[in-house]
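In response to the reviewer comment on reproducibility (Comment 2.3), we provide here a single inverse folding case reported in full, input and output, so that an independent group could reproduce the run without further information from us. The structure tokens appear first.
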């Protein structure tokens, strides 16, 4: 009898854990998502000079997407990141080999990485992509 009293509540707990959980609307909203999610984007690169007040000018490598996208946070992370709509220009941020990255200026590229909001005086765009990989969109280029 004691075994039955222990097994029944455990069985009920296990069954309730196996029920399908409702989908999180922030994950299924049709948008790309901020880090830690990774995404692949294709577009044409260009450079942009960015100057923050009282600082030197820097050159940012940008990507113009073929069509605007929306970007939203995953429900489980980055609650401080806000959904943005109609993003078409994204700054590409290199983890290394920044010189090689700028050799792709003016080309259509395929970039894989994580998206994050950019803030502050020196931001070149509302959203940046920290690159994992970047290369020509057409491997025959």
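Designed residues, in position order:
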């Amino acid at each position: 009898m004691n075994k039955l009293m222990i097994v029944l509540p455990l069985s009920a707990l296990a069954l309730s854990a196996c029920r399908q959980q409702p989908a999180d609307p922030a994950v299924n909203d049709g948008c790309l998502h901020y880090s830690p999610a990774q995404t692949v984007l294709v577009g044409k690169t260009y450079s942009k000079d960015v100057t923050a007040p009282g600082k030197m000018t820097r050159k940012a490598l940008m990507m113009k997407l073929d069509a605007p996208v929306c970007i939203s946070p995953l429900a489980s992370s980055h609650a401080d990141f806000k959904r943005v709509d109609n993003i078409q220009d994204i700054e590409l941020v290199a983890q290394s080999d920044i010189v090689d990255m700028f050799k792709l200026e003016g080309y259509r590229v395929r970039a894989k990485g994580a998206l994050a909001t950019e803030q502050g005086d020196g931001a070149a765009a509302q959203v940046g992509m920290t690159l994992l990989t970047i290369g020509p969109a057409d491997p025959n280029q």
